[in-house]
Design brief:
Order of helices and strands: HHEEHEHEHEHEEHHEEEHHEHEHEEH
CATH architecture of the largest domain: 3-Layer(aba) Sandwich
CATH superfamily of the largest domain: Glutaredoxin
Number of strands: 14
Strand content: 15-25%
Largest sheet: 5 strands, mixed
Mean pLDDT: 86
Shape: elongated
Low-confidence stretches: 1-31, 189-198
Strand order of the largest sheet: 5-4-3-6-7
Length: 343
């Protein structure tokens, strides 16, 4: 069985999973997701969580700093299109119902390939009651979002205690450990948010999958640059839950392959680091015979820089690297649309 879950397992999973599904997952899937979440948390454990202020989809404001020193915080990153997120939602809702008086429980939608309306519809369908936030990119940046779901437990003193993927004993032990901590008069020192800001600096050159530098501007020839934002699992994983989005990803790939050969523009496909690493991208290139240069935006810095929240999205730069146009929906005549885009 292939260990790369997002690329391989949707075909075996039904579109609408009932609320009573077990939170257990096949061993290979579980290990892969947990390992990715643990990798994401390696730089976070023991450090202070960010002093973020967030607004729920109901308009309620939550200031995380108000909890530090008083009570633990439990954050779950999730998405409406994510199968294990749906599997684990009963556990999450139960945690909110039984521990919300002791722990600040917050559901953070990734905001990736879904809107606030999608989230509201999902909440109504399942009757969820916990506070829900749609991320604007700040949470993903601060907590190194790599998978969905991704659980984060913050202790009473504001330090990150746990980052994981599964709703299992390790998560329960982390929540209990956070509750067992004594209340403190002040939060711990050291800011994850500052480290995240350092990671978010993007230069004018990015590396392709093969390690070749790719400049985001080409002043010598004044050629345009087409940044095609993608996810390698979009076509396969969203085929049932988001068929229109899956087809858009397929259309973007097929049209770009036809256009790049004789184009007078420079092309590069930028892949999200959510549920994708270098090996996943290499597999995608091989299986789909992709010739467009690929780059992995592991920490999402380029996606945030160009305010990309869904794939596929095309951002067109002029020779100086200035954005002159963007295409958020893939037309059937992408070449003509690109030719007429911008000044």
């Amino acid at each position: 069985m292939d260990a790369r879950w997002p690329m391989k397992f949707l075909r075996a999973l039904p579109l609408a999973l009932p609320l009573v599904l077990s939170v257990a997952a096949p061993p290979v899937l579980a290990a892969t997701g947990q390992e990715r979440a643990q990798d994401a948390g390696r730089d976070l454990i023991g450090r202070r969580a960010p002093d973020l202020s967030l607004k729920t989809i109901d308009g309620q404001t939550i200031n995380l700093a108000d909890d530090y020193g008083r009570r633990p915080v439990y954050i779950k990153f999730w998405a409406t299109w994510c199968v294990p997120c749906r599997e684990q939602m009963p556990h999450f809702e139960h945690t909110f119902e039984t521990r919300s008086g002791e722990v600040e429980v917050i559901a953070v939608s990734t905001g990736f390939n879904e809107t606030a309306d999608d989230v509201r519809a999902y909440r109504r369908a399942l009757g969820l009651k916990m506070p829900i936030v749609v991320d604007d990119g700040r949470f993903a940046r601060a907590f190194n979002l790599r998978v969905t779901p991704q659980h984060v437990v913050i202790g009473r003193d504001g330090r990150v205690l746990y980052v994981g993927h599964l709703a299992d004993d390790s998560l329960e032990h982390a929540l209990q450990a956070a509750l067992d901590e004594p209340a403190s008069s002040g939060a711990a020192a050291g800011h994850v948010v500052a480290r995240a800001a350092e990671r978010d600096s993007v230069t004018d050159s990015i590396a392709t999958l093969d390690g070749t530098p790719f400049a985001l501007r080409d002043p010598a020839t004044s050629r345009r640059t087409v940044l095609m934002f993608i996810s390698p699992w979009c076509e396969s994983y969203l085929a049932q839950s988001r068929p229109a989005r899956s087809q858009a990803c397929r259309s973007a790939r097929e049209q770009s392959e036809r256009l790049v050969a004789g184009a007078d523009a420079r092309w590069i496909a930028v892949a999200s680091g959510l549920w994708a690493n270098r090996d996943d991208l290499l597999e995608y290139r091989t299986e789909q015979h992709v010739t467009v240069p690929l780059s992995l935006d592991e920490d999402g810095a380029l996606f945030r820089r160009y305010h990309v929240a869904q794939v596929p999205t095309f951002v067109i730069l002029d020779g100086r690297g200035k954005v002159v146009a963007r295409i958020d929906e893939v037309p059937s005549d992408l070449g003509a649309r690109l030719a007429s885009a911008g000044p």
